[in-house]
Design goal:
It is a single chain. This protein has about 375 residues and is mainly β. It contains four helices and 29 strands. β21 and β22 form a beta hairpin. The protein is elongated and about 90 Å long. The N terminus is likely disordered.
Length: about 375
């Protein structure tokens, strides 16, 4: 009987010790984040990403180990997110068991654009490390977050919806897609011009929270063709005040311009447009690719385009474009407009270069060039 009692006491003691041990294990398995910090890059560091070096490091990180106090395999996932969102919708760059990671420019650039980096504009993104251990049921633990200032290149396709785009409307059933090509977004769509015919651009299809309205672009220094205005509604959307019709719309993040030009035919080049070519324009004296600048007929007798003009350089107005060197399709130089009684902006003069081209004498920058053939005024705004 005494032996039975001793065995019972020993069993109870063993269970008590096991319970204490389990409880202690649960306690010491609690992770600590006191030393789980990103070491490099430093908060506020910056980088300019280049399309010319896609394999170069876009971001290189090192961090202190996460201490789970138990022996297990620890995985680290690098995450980025839009600045100020508290990682509500993070994107994973990659996972490793090391205490360092490097991600190449090409992939990192795409991920930055996806979380909202503005092309060719320094944009703050947030970076953190997520740690998980091999312990069953272990919850992820996060490092501190840092701000990394990124100047990305290129662009992602974007979308447009609104009552002013009759093929779309204010829904996501058939949004208009703006195709991206090296930082330039384009779409061809029908535009209405009623007082309530507004529209807006979005970076993510189906997500109303990714809208970019008129002030978004003007606050970044964009020049916008005058027939696209701020509708002045609650969301400050865009509205077309030019004639209703089909237009090609271009958002150029390289030069910070938004333009429209009519599309009356299905051909590659619009016969109602004129074209600017010359060293003063972004494409120089070349018709190669898209070097020439389309001067669209935005309203009756009014040709207008936003473009970057280079100081003390020349250009000429051409009347046609056949997709190749279109020098012989007609052109108009400075004396042509003088002889036809045009009033010409003081920042434009006769280049006196043999062809009597225009010379732009204003500061290098994005301007709006306009030829009003009704009032006979050529202006630079």
């Amino acid at each position: 009987m005494k032996n039975t009692f001793k065995i019972l006491i020993a069993a109870i003691a063993f269970v008590g010790i096991s319970s204490c041990t389990d409880e202690n294990n649960l306690t010491i398995s609690e992770p600590t984040t006191e030393t789980f910090l990103i070491k490099t890059p430093l908060n506020g560091d910056s980088i300019i990403l280049s399309e010319a070096t896609p394999s170069n490091p876009g971001i290189s990180l090192t961090w202190n180990p996460m201490d789970y106090t138990t022996t297990s395999v620890i995985s680290y996932t690098v995450q980025i997110a839009e600045d100020g969102t508290d990682f509500a919708d993070p994107i994973d760059l990659g996972t490793t068991t090391d205490l360092f990671a490097t991600f190449q420019t090409a992939d990192f650039n795409l991920k930055c654009l996806t979380v909202g980096a503005v092309p060719f504009v320094q944009t703050a993104i947030n970076v953190r490390i997520k740690s998980t251990s091999g312990t069953v049921g272990a919850q992820p633990v996060y490092s501190n977050s840092i701000v990394y200032l990124v100047t990305a290149f290129g662009c992602l396709n974007q979308y447009a919806v609104g009552q002013g785009l009759p093929q779309s409307g204010w829904n996501w059933n058939s949004p208009r897609t703006l195709l991206c090509d090296n930082g330039v977004l384009t779409m061809t769509a029908d535009f209405l011009n009623g007082s309530s015919d507004a529209f807006r651009f979005f970076t993510t299809e189906g997500d109303w929270n990714t809208g970019r309205n008129y002030p978004f672009y003007t606050n970044l220094g964009y020049k916008i063709v005058s027939t696209l205005i701020n509708n002045g509604d609650g969301d400050q959307n865009f509205r077309n005040v030019g004639p209703a019709g089909k237009y090609k719309l271009t958002i150029d993040s390289n030069n910070k311009t938004i333009n429209v030009a009519p599309r009356t035919t299905t051909g590659a080049f619009e016969p109602t447009s004129s074209w600017l070519v010359g060293a003063a324009t972004p494409g120089g004296w070349s018709w190669s690719g898209n070097n020439e600048t389309e001067l669209g007929l935005v309203d009756t007798g009014i040709y207008e385009v936003a473009l970057k003009l280079n100081n003390n350089e020349a250009f000429r107005v051409f009347l046609g474009n056949n997709g190749g060197d279109s020098w012989g399709l007609g052109d108009r130089n400075f004396p042509y407009y003088v002889s036809n009684s045009y009033t010409i902006d003081s920042e434009l003069e006769n280049a006196a270069d043999g062809d009597s081209n225009f010379r732009y004498t204003g500061p290098t920058g994005v301007r709006i060039f306009k030829i009003n053939s009704i009032t006979k005024v050529i202006s630079v705004d």
